[in-house]
Amino acid sequence: GTDTSRTRPVPVAGGLTFATVSAGATHTCGVTTGGAAYCWGYNGTGQLGDGTTTLRQSPVPVHGGLTFTTVKSGAYFTCGMTTGGVAYCWGANDTYELGSGLKTGPEQCAPGSTPLSCSTLPIAVKAE
């Protein structure tokens, strides 16, 4: 990975095969064909889910050993739905984005379970 802008599509580094990809304002995440979530880009609030706040130029696995059907990237947070129908969110929580009902403590740098458990509810995140 580099920070060079491109006018044509380039493959994502790492040789992974993605089933879905979601680009947010500052980072991108995807789910591989095997259900593993990976994210890359800006990580100042832990939105990559790797347990750090380090910028990543190439995909890094989301911590937790969870199997996802989808992940969606917001501006400074990420949410995903597991194959078991449980929603997880991580990253910035200054306006309750993580769905825990609490706005206490620091941002989550890795997935933290939200009170949602509804496999029929699609997750949509909008970056503004």
In short:
The protein is an all-beta fold. The chain has one domain.
Describe the protein's architecture and organization:
The protein is mostly beta strands and 128 residues long. The protein has one domain (18-117). It has strands spanning 18-23, 27-32, 37-41, 56-61, 68-73, 77-82, 86-91, 108-117. The strands form two sheets. The chain has a four-stranded antiparallel beta sheet, with no helix packed on it. The protein has a four-stranded antiparallel beta sheet with strand order 5-6-7-8, with no helix packed on it. Strand 5 and strand 6 (77-82) form a beta hairpin. It is globular and about 40 Å long. The protein starts with 17 loop residues before the first strand and ends in an 11-residue tail after the last strand.
The number of helical elements comes to: 0
- Oligomeric state, counting identical vs distinct chains: single chain
Strand content: 35-45%
Number of discrete domains: 1
Question: Helix fraction?
Answer: under 10%
Largest sheet: 4 strands, antiparallel
Query: Per the principal axes of the C-alpha atoms, what is the gross shape?
Result: globular
- Please tell me the overall pLDDT: 81
Q: Biggest sheet: strands side by side, in what order?
A: 1-2-3-4
N-to-C terminal Cα separation, in Å?
25 Å
Stretches where pLDDT is under 50 for at least 5 consecutive residues are 105-109, 114-128
Structural class: mainly beta
What is the string of SSEs from the N terminus onward? EEEEEEEE
Q: How many strands in all?
A: 8
Please compute the radius of gyration using only Cα atoms: 14 Å
